[in-house]
Design a protein that fits this description.
Blueprint lengths: L1 E5 L23 E2 L1 H7 L5 H8 L1 E4 L2 E4 L17 H6 L6 H5 L2 E6 L2 E6 L4 H9 L6 E5 L12 H18 L6 H21 L4 H7 L5 H6 L8 H16 L4 H4 L1 H11 L8 H9 L4 H18 L9 H27 L5 H16 L2 H13 L5 H8 L1
Helix pairs in contact: 5-16, 6-7, 6-14, 7-15, 7-18, 10-12, 10-18, 12-15, 13-15, 14-15, 15-16
Amino acid sequence: MKYLTLESYTDFKCTGSKCPCTCCGGWQIVIDEETDRFYQNVDSELGERLRNNICRDGREAKIILDEEGLCPFLNETGLCSIQLGLGEEHLSNTCRYYPRYNLFVGDICFAGVSISCPEVSRFYLTHEDPLLIDYAENDDNGYDQHNTDWELFNRAIRTFTTAVAIAQNRDRSVKERIALVILLAGGFQACIDEGRDASEIIGLYSNPEYYNLILDQTGIKTCDLSSKTAFTGGLMSLFGTMRTLDKKLPEISELITFFSDPDHSTVDPPVWEKAFALSSSGDYEIWRENLLVYILFKYFMQGLSEKNFHEKLMSGIGPVLITSTCITALYYIMHGKEPDMDYIIMLVMRLSRLIEHNQEIGREVCNYFMKAGYMDPGYAIRLIS
């Protein structure tokens, strides 16, 4: 088995009670079968609490959250009573491994950590050097060799590595890199859909000498203000329909309240242009680059089973990367200055929790992007121009 590990996977350490936004609440906490059987036989006051605070819906056991949406085993100091009382080895798989995740594709395990953890979000968004992807291999052949289209798999891996190289090519602006990655994924997908050999397009995007020629055909150098403002307005309207947004995404809730005021509802085009120009400024280059690499690593190869690489990639780029860019632009308009890094870290973390970890809301946001025509590479590029 081969292992690709995105930097910080092995070095991650939970900050425990110092965490500004605990993972012990706000979403379902599922208990795996083995841990659930153990909990049912714990003979102590903690065991009684476990049995009283776990519900079972069919095969799935889940912790019953309290009125504030927190795990009832989170003590007053912000630590886990289960871990303190029984040891880390008796945490459920969800609690033991989060924010780590493993994606098994072909004979490769992609091992990463989720930006829904504020400590991970902080690392990725402030890490100045290009993120490293480590490689390791062992003799374990515990993957299904018979259900993998190995020719497609190998070409997809070449496309993935090419896309990462583009994302980390700091000779180009970050918006140009995002555009090139989107176009590469779209071109690779077209080859799959039409039954064509993708080697030529992979080779084209592997050579930086062709980047100017490719980008000159996209209109990336011209800001499409009307598309961006209309899209951002529709996105805010969508978020405005979601319940308890003030708790889940206070950054967006604040913006919606501000722009709902008639005195603030009209924004002059030059102000919009300056707000969106922030996304291409030097201060924004690093966190957008690292977020793009994170999305490539987590999403692109998910497309192998259904041969929908472009759709999978865009389901990460849009709801997380483009949405965070729209929100930072609105923040600038509201406050007359760009947000600090702490704001961006918490924003990206909460977007991930709301969209990546909540199937219902994630589906709503993805549907908005789809209906807006975002799956068309040309339109997606206009949103980042």
